[in-house]
Structure formats: C-alpha cells, structure tokens
Design a protein that fits this description.
With about 375 residues, the protein is mainly beta. Helices cover about 0% and strands about 45% of the residues. The protein contains one helix and 27 strands. The strands form seven sheets. Strands 1-2-27-26-25 form a five-stranded antiparallel β-sheet. Strands 3-4-5-6 form a four-stranded antiparallel β-sheet, with no helix packed on it.
C-alpha cells in the first residue's frame, strides 16, 4: 500500500495557526502525518488492544481489526454488525477497548433496530479473541437511547476509573436533554458489566451530566483525570466542556453562553443551574467532533494539550491549557485530508501518537500523527 507522508515543522503550521504555536521560548514538536489505511467508508473511531491491534468502526455497519496502527498493517477480520440502521449521522460510531487479560473487552455504540422495531443507539460489549475475531457478549444499554439521522453522539471511552463513558445526543428532540428519565442529551457512566457505578449522581441511573446537544468527543485530561467533552452547537457555539458530576450544560436553553431556541435564561455564568463551556466557537461553528489529549514527552510543549478534529473546517485544532481561558494554540492540516471525524491516541513507552479518521464519503482514511522534539 502506498503511504503518504507530510512532515510539518513550525513554519508549515504558522500560516494556519490562530495564535502563537507554543509558549514563549518553547520549540514545538516536528509532526509527521502518515496515511496508514485507505479505501474505508465513513470510518468513525479508532481504538487499540493492549497488544497493538487496531480496531476501526465504519458507520455503515462494520468493525475492522488490523494487526497494528502502522502503514501496511494487515487486516485480521471484519465484523458486520446485525440490525444496524445507518441513516444520516447514525450507524456504527464510537469504540473503546478495556485492557483485560487474556481477552480485551470491546465496547461499541451503534444505531440499531431493536427486536420490537424501535430505532435505538445501543452500547454493546464484545470480546476480542485470537486472530482478531470479535465475539459478541451482550447489549449493555439497549432501549434507553433514541437514535435519529442527526445528533446521535456516541463517543465511547474507558476512563481512568475503568468505567465506560458514553456521550449521547438529543436525537433532534429538544425535550430530552433536560428530562431525568431519558438517556438522550447526556454523558453516561456505567460499569463494564452494564451495572450502575457507585458515585453516580442519581440513584439507579447511568446519567453523569445532562443538557447536551450532540457531544461526539470525550477525553480525560492527563494528571487530573478531568473529563472533557466536545459538542456540536447549532448555528453558533460549538463547545469544549469540562464535565462535572451532576452538571447541567444548558441545552436546549443555552448554546454556549447565549440563550437558545427562544428561551430567556442566564447562560453567562459557570454556576447553577447551567455550566458554562471552557471554550465556545462563536459564529460560525467549526463542527468540532473527536477529541484526545497527548501524554507522551515526544510532544514537548504540546504534551497534555487537547486535540480536536473539525468537520466543516477540515482541520485539527490544538487547545492549550496554559491558563484561563482555554484557547486554540494551533490549527493543523487545514484541508490536507478533508473532513476530520475522529481523534484517538495510542501510547507506547516514552511517547504516543494521534490517529485521525476522515469523513469524505469515499476512499476515507486513517491518518497517524507522530511527533518528535
């Protein structure tokens, strides 16, 4: 397979950077982008097993397993999920792997038709076996999350607490994000066996936070373990939110710090009842989608920064945590790969890399981003 390499030094980034690329006196890392898989159909997310096997979801209904996250890695298996209803934004979306010996557990969020004929976003668990085969184990959340052609959310992550975290969208229904009996428009937290963890804010519910429109990225900040979610706004204010236990993020009453949908609410303060975003786009929106933090020392001054993919702007945004407010420090790969959907991270001893998925409708790719000081 032919590979494509793009080496970006600081000079290559500066024309599209929105602010200074790095703190004063700090030399930014040199980046290298390599297309490691191509010919995919709407790849949504990437996850890795402990031994390095790479799993990629495709929205129309598949999970592909490769020997690793490198150019030319062989495909081990393809799993086609049953009863997937892939329409609009819905389909097979987020994926995460819980490292367990000898067989890792794989968690997938997918839009499916239930046996009762309802369209639901379901969280399922698989076992990753020898030869890259995925063995279905059970549905963890089956009938609680409405699906639609828009606003499905479905980011899946394993937290530092080894719980499963899942984002859900409002499915186009403004009433759902504030309803306590609905799992839509929420950030959910469950145990790997599907039970409700101790410490969740409600009794017998997976809901960790509410008031979300369409969060498609979840990431945990290194060191603090703080949960961050990236969310699509309507015609204004994509958001980056720090998710707190029991927090209400305002939708449909607020879009960022602005009242929305004709409601008259005070959305400007980061206090009860609504939490203000750490960052908001203003207008126009960027269509912020995936999110991942870097952790390795190979990223130099960009270590522990948040990287967010954008669909409308077709770029990768680096958010710097060098003091309030949260700010965009760099804009990378502006249009180089088209629309960018997902951002994932893979660590190894002494460093880590980012993995991007494209969303161009045909011949989509997985791109690996490495850094060196």
């Amino acid at each position: 397979m032919r590979t494509r390499h793009l080496t970006l030094a600081l000079a290559a980034c500066l024309p599209v950077a929105l602010t200074a690329a790095s703190p004063a006196g700090a030399e930014p890392p040199r980046l290298n982008a390599t297309v490691i898989q191509r010919g995919l159909v709407n790849p949504w997310d990437v996850a890795f097993a402990p031994d390095g096997r790479m799993l990629v979801t495709e929205r129309p209904g598949r999970i592909r397993v490769y020997t690793g996250g490198r150019a030319g890695a062989a495909q081990l298996s393809v799993r086609t999920l049953k009863r997937v209803r892939a329409e609009g934004e819905a389909g097979v979306m987020g994926i995460a792997v819980l490292s367990r010996r000898p067989d890792p557990k794989v968690f997938v969020c997918a839009s499916r038709t239930t046996r009762q004929g309802r369209w639901r976003n379901q969280l399922m668990r698989y076992r990753l076996g020898d030869g890259g085969r995925l063995h279905f184990e059970r549905v963890l959340i089956g009938d609680r999350i409405r699906a639609n052609t828009i606003h499905d959310g479905c980011a899946v992550q394993i937290g530092p607490d080894r719980k499963v975290w899942l984002s859900t969208g409002d499915a186009g229904d403004l009433s759902l994000p504030q309803r306590g009996d609905s799992y839509n428009g929420k950030i959910l937290r469950i145990n790997p066996d599907g039970s409700i963890p101790a410490g969740n804010p409600g009794t017998g519910t997976a809901v960790w936070s509410r008031g979300h429109r369409n969060p498609q990225g979840i990431a945990f900040r290194p060191g603090s373990g703080d949960v961050y979610a990236v969310e699509h706004g309507p015609d204004v204010n994509d958001e980056v939110n720090r998710i707190v236990r029991g927090g209400n993020y305002g939708w449909p009453y607020c879009a960022g710090t602005r009242p929305a949908n004709g409601f008259s609410r005070d959305c400007s303060r980061d206090s009860s009842p609504y939490r203000a975003p750490r960052w908001q786009s203003g207008a126009p929106t960027l269509a912020t989608s995936g999110a991942a933090f870097t952790r390795g020392s190979n990223w130099g001054p960009w270590r522990n920064d948040l990287f967010v993919s954008t669909l409308k702007e077709s770029d990768l945004r680096r958010f710097a945590f060098d003091g309030p407010p949260l700010r965009i420090g760099s804009t990378l790969y502006n249009g180089s790969f088209g629309r960018l959907r997902g951002v994932s991270r893979r660590s190894w001893k002494g460093g880590d890399a980012l993995f991007l998925t494209t969303s161009n409708g045909s011949n989509d790719r997985v791109v690996r981003i490495t850094a060196r000081r």
